[in-house]
Design goal:
The structure holds two protein chains of two kinds. By secondary structure, chain A is mainly β. In chain A, strands 2, 5, 6, 10, 11 and 12 form a six-stranded mixed sheet that branches. Chain A has a four-stranded antiparallel sheet with strand order 3-9-8-7, with no helix packed on it. In chain A, strands 1-4 form a two-stranded antiparallel ribbon. Chain B is globular. The chains are: A mainly beta, B mainly beta. The interface between A and B is medium-sized, with 24 and 29 residues.
Chain lengths: 112, 115
């Protein structure tokens, strides 16, 4: 079935370190891909998205490229800040479908 | 301000006592959805609604009911809650579109404990 697999956390990094959170998907069609972020005590917020192969989503210094050949959508940031500490969710949704599929989430803590 | 509002934010109840968690959005969105978030399982979709009077099961609908009588409201009903429904619940909404690039807007969450 359709699913999203994220790297397990928690991830702890020092400020200004590089971040990569891996996300791969299994899908029978061509989904849109999303990264959502959840700050402590809050609901999820869209961080970035990509709707077709080779699209690159970017926001707040984060980037992710839709790789159809490897069915991946890894989240990257070159220099993390303490304020990036949150849980990050990879998700997919099909053009013609009505369901969202989320990964299990990856907790990131950035220490000064 | 565009928002999705859930109530209550925190709820402790006992097994078998019916409860309703309300969800309301002010963005005129057609699509609304309920999720539960559990450690190690991420978000799982319970029910969703494409429009008024149109609802469908998600991945984990057992033990839940929903209704969509008005566009802005999408309550989640637990007729007879059980301890395995202890979880963090999120309501979300988005615009509808067949070729969807839709963004979902999430509420702040309802933390439910069933004793």
């Amino acid at each position: 079935g359709d699913s999203v697999t994220q790297m397990e956390g928690p991830v702890t990094l020092s400020e200004e370190a590089c971040l990569t959170i891996n996300c791969t998907y299994t899908a029978t069609g061509y989904p849109s891909l999303f990264w959502y972020v959840q700050y402590p005590g809050e609901g999820l917020q869209l961080l970035l998205k990509a709707t077709k192969a080779d699209d690159k989503g970017s926001n707040k210094g984060f980037e992710a490229t839709y790789r159809k050949e490897t069915t991946s959508f890894h989240l990257e940031k070159g220099s993390v800040q303490v304020s990036d500490s949150a849980v990050y969710f990879c998700a997919l949704r099909f053009y013609t479908g009505n369901q969202f599929y989320f990964g299990t989430g990856t907790s990131l803590t950035v220490i000064p | 301000e565009a928002q999705v509002t859930q109530n209550p934010r925190y709820l402790i109840t006992v097994t078998g006592k019916k409860l309703t968690v309300t969800c309301s959005q002010n963005m005129n969105h057609e699509y609304m959805s309920w999720y539960r978030q559990d450690p190690g399982l991420g978000l799982r979709q319970i029910y969703y609604s494409m429009n008024v009077e149109v609802t469908d099961k998600g991945d984990v609908p057992e033990g839940y009911k929903v209704s969509r009588k008005e566009k802005r409201n999408f309550p989640l009903i637990l007729e007879s809650p059980s301890p395995n429904q202890t979880s963090l619940y999120f309501c979300a909404s988005s615009l509808r579109g067949a070729w969807t690039k839709n963004i979902q807007y999430f509420g702040a969450g309802t933390r439910l404990s069933v004793l």
